Amino acid sequence: RTLSERSISAVADLINSGKVRRVVVMTGAGISTAAGIPDFRSPETGLYANLASLDLPEPEAVFDLSFFKENPRPFYALAKELYPGRYHPTVSHVFISLLASKNLLHQLFTQNIDCLERAAGIPEDLIVEAHGSFATQRCVECKTTYDDDKMRDHVRRGDVPRCEAKTGGLEGVCDGLVKPDIVFFGEQLPRSFFDRMPKAAQADLVLVMGTSLQVHPFASLPNQAMEYVPRVLFNMERVGTLGSQADDVLVLGDCDTGVRKLADALGWGEELEKVWKE
Ligand code: OAD
Ligand code: ZN
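Structure tokens predicted for NAD-dependent protein deacetylase hst2-1:
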């Protein structure tokens, strides 16, 4: 058996011993690639490598607030592809929902904007959408919220919604750009991220899944855990400081495969497949 397989069974034993009560999970785009949603930074398949057609100064500009205010069209072209409703949760999402149903999930911090955590049935109060989501939207000028159904229509057509809030002026409406409440570069993370950050320090087991840990402040979350707390990485590649501590476990490869191994070691394998197929 490989080192990671021995370690997976050690992690499973720890959970099954009852000593683990607070699992904190930190996720990124890699847990949704199996659902058909591309990640950002994978060299061939990632969104940033495939945005050339959108006429951007650099790929990250698609999520840059000042660029968006100049030219919102590339973002809306992308939003058409990424918009929730077309995709289904992966085995990894369902595994996190099992942690929740077994009262082991202390907090999930996700960078994803695809809403697949909610779709997998993870209770909303256990989810921190650190980079926001497509669930709500508002005007970038006057901050007035914008109707969900109208938003969906605009996104489907790939065109840019504009604020309809009444103003006192001659034109009568604000007409500012409407943007989903996704955290762009140049914007603050939601309060919930900072409010729940102490939960990461309360973890007695950390699972990091499908993220390159390139974007701060999210990237520092795995370092909030106490030093003696085991941290397990399910990812294609080694990232951040994972692997630098004695009890870190690296499960390299696709996360659904790694998660299935852990579920099997826990005796949850059948339940995982059953819930996933529902
Ligand atoms: P990235 O694309 O930066 O990283 C995804 C990570 O998941 C990489 O390390 C991949 O190797 C790995 N990966 C891909 N598919 C996988 C799979 N099936 N199994 C396991 N690992 C896999 O995505 P994030 O870390 O989520 O911001 O990116 C962070 C933020 O950067 C995003 O939230 C986004 C972007 O700018 C916004 O959307 C506002
Ligand atoms: Zn407005």
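Strands lie at 23-27, 105-110, 127-129, 132-139, 178-182, 205-209, 231-235, 248-252.
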